[in-house]
Design brief:
P-loop_NTPase; 355 residues; 8% strand; alpha/beta; 51% helix; Sulfotransferase family protein
Length: 355
């Protein structure tokens, strides 16, 4: 019977990819230490979409939440389930998830980050998920208290939806360290919560998750608007647009225009931050880090993607075309080398057989 289950529910853009990469890259090492990541990364993602009953669940998805629970229940040690999409679950869905994992001791792990950095990152992720809404409309809706898709992924609401399902000592809030902090600090905080010994996992420093510039992300948003029914979200869009345009082309572009929240909204962000911190101070949970790290630092004026000029858009589009040509040439060269290697191997085997 499973001893403990740590359900890491997000939020997106809080270093979740880095943490998950460490976990999955060391899966066998963790298993030998008594810590299981059940199923695969993709299967955990499918289980998340089943639990949340999202309309964008891939029609070819086969894994369900119950299948993931069954896999976890066969393990006698500790289990980690990690998917930042889980943070968007309703209270009823979170309650169902926690109940299904009984009689294991369920812990909920939430990661929080300051709003000044989170809001632009979340909107960018929306666009990379095929959204066509503008940055201004996104911010305006949030300022009016709308957009549950965003609010449900904030630390405060995730703790209410998920944390309320378990005793206070099993609720864990990890704060994202401020810019300039040691690279390993976030991992050390996460590992401490789930009981992973220091030095157990092999960790290679990864390049920072590159954000797109104002022109590049606006180019992608306009592309999404023109796609129509082509490359629908989720798998087709990820397989073609993200894999062949965003990752190898747009992320490698100039990205010179840093985008973010305008200073005209700084006071609102600061006031909202203090409200959130006060609420978290009153919420009984284990805080790993410091709630003060949720306060924005180094507020600077930036460019809104809505203000990108047509000339800047044209430059970004031309650079993207050049990038696509270079990327396509690289694919051709790699395919050619692979073909030559396979032919040489086949010839060598045939010669050896005749001898």
């Amino acid at each position: 019977m499973t001893r403990r289950v740590f359900v890491h529910v997000g939020a997106p853009k809080t270093g979740s990819t880095f943490v998950q990469n460490v976990l999955w890259n060391n899966r066998e090492t963790l298993k030998r230490a008594g810590i299981l990541l059940p199923a695969t990364r993709g299967q955990q993602d499918q289980a998340m979409t089943d639990l949340r009953e999202v309309p964008w669940r891939d029609k070819d998805a086969t894994w369900t939440w119950d299948m993931l629970v069954e896999k976890a229940a066969k393990w006698s040690g500790d289990v980690i389930i990690t998917n930042e999409g889980l943070g968007g679950a309703t209270p009823a869905q979170a309650a169902r998830a926690v109940r299904s994992l009984a009689p294991a001791e369920v812990h909920v792990v939430v990661v929080g980050r300051d709003l000044w950095r989170t809001l632009p990152s979340m909107w960018q992720e929306n666009v990379k998920s095929r959204s066509v809404g503008s940055f201004e409309n996104f911010l305006s809706a949030i300022q009016r208290g709308k957009n549950d898709a965003f609010w449900n992924h904030t630390a405060n609401r995730m703790l209410r939806h998920w944390g309320d399902q378990v005793p206070p000592e099993r609720r864990h809030l990890i704060t994202v360290p401020p810019p300039g902090s040691p690279y390993m600090l976030l991992w050390e905080r996460f590992a401490g919560v789930v009981g992973i010994p220091d030095g157990l996992c092999r960790i290679e420093q990864e390049p920072a998750n590159q954000s797109l510039g104002a022109a590049e992300i606006e180019l992608l948003r306009r592309l999404n608007r023109q796609l129509g029914d082509r490359f629908p979200y989720r798998t087709p869009y990820r397989r073609f647009v993200l894999r062949h345009l965003v990752g190898p082309v747009l992320k490698q572009g100039r990205n010179e225009l840093r985008f973010g929240i305008g200073m005209d909204r700084a006071e609102w962000i600061l006031d909202l931050t203090e409200e959130r911190i006060k609420e978290l101070e009153e919420y009984p949970c284990d805080v790993v880090g410091d709630l003060g790290e949720l306060r924005p630092v180094d507020l600077k004026e930036t460019v809104s993607p809505d203000d990108v000029t047509e000339a800047q858009m044209l430059d970004a589009a031309i650079e993207a075309l050049i990038g696509m040509i270079e990327y396509s040439d690289g694919l051709y060269e790699r395919a050619h080398r692979d073909l030559v290697t396979r032919i040489k191997g086949r010839v060598a085997r045939q010669v050896g057989f005749r001898r």
